[in-house]
Amino acid sequence: MDFRRLAPLGLMLLWACSTPKPPEPTRQEILDRFHQMFYDGPNTWHESQWLGIETLQNPNDVWITQEIIVEVAPDFIIETGTRRGGSAILWAMIQREVNPEGKVITIDINPVEEPVTKLAIWRERVEFRHTSSVDPDLVAELAERVRGKKVLVILDSDHRENHVYQELTAYGPMVSLGSYLIVQDTNVNGHPVVSDFGPGPMEALERFLSETNAFEVDASRERFLFTMHPRGYLKRVK
Q1: Are 102 and 151 in contact (CB under 8 A)?
Q2: What contacts 138, CB < 8 A, 6 or more positions away?
Q3: What is the three-class DSSP state of 199?
C-alpha cells in the first residue's frame, strides 16, 4: 500500500474535524424561515377561499379567531377591510352558531360585488359599510350602536402605521371587557416578512400599547407557533 496516497485524505479529515460547525438555527429562526416561505409562496394564503370567495387568511389564524368568536359569542364583529367579503362570511358563519342574533359589520372604501353579495349568509348576517374605517361619523355611529354589547374587532384594512393607529384608538374603546382587538398582518415590515414595507401594524400596535393599559397581548393565541399576526391578539382586560 502506498501510504503517500493516504496523506491528502488524512489532511482532509483533519481539516474537517478542526473546522467549527456552523451554529444550529434557533427555534425562532426556524419559525421565521417557515413564515417567509409560507408568506412568499404563490399557492399558500394567496389562494385561500371560503365558499369559493377569496379570503386571504392564514388557516392557523382563522382557527384561533374561530376559538375567540366561540368564547366571546359577540353581538357584533366589526371588521375593517372587506376586500371580496370572504372573511366576513367566514366570521358570520361561526358567529351564527354561538350568537344567532349577532351581526358582522364590515367596512371598506371599495365596493363589494358578486359573488359574495348573492350568498344568503351575506344578506342575512353581514352589514357592509362603504366608507373609510376611520370616518368620524361612522366611528361615532358605531360606538353608540354597540354600546353595552359584546364586541369583537378585527383590523385588516390599510396597513400603514398611522391608519392602523387611528383604527386602534377609534375601535379599541368599543371592544367589550374580555373580548379581543385583533390586529392583522403585524408580520410586515420585517416581523419577519416584507422588510421594506415601512412602519405598519406592528409599529401602530406598539404605539397604542404604550398609551393604554386596557389591553394586553395574549401570547396564548400564538400556540400554533406560526401566526401572521404576531403580538396582534389584544385582549381587553380593563
Answers
A1: no
A2: 107, 129, 131, 132
A3: coil
Q: What is the pLDDT of residues 155-204, one digit of tens each?
A: 999 999 999 999 999 999 999 999 999 999 999 999 999 999 999 999 99
Residues 167, 144: Cα–Cα separation, whole Å: 16
Distance CA 11, CA 29 (A): 34
Q: How far is Cα of residue 219 from the mean position of the Cα atoms in its chain? A: 13
- Residue 214 C-alpha cell reads as 386596557
**Domains of the chain (ranges, CATH numbers):** 49-236 (3.40.50.150)
Rounded Cα–Cα distance for residues 39 and 197 (Å): 14
**What pTM was computed for the model?**
0.91
Name every residue whose Cβ is closer than 8 Å to that of residue 7 and which is 6 or more positions away in sequence.
none
Q: Are strands 76-80 and 53-54 parallel, antiparallel or unpaired?
A: unpaired
Q: Which three cell numbers stand for residue 64?
A: 384561533
Q: Residue 142 corresponds to which cell in the numbers above? A: 358605531
Report how far residue 103's alpha carbon sits from residue 125's, in angstroms, rounded to the nearest whole number.
Answer: 5
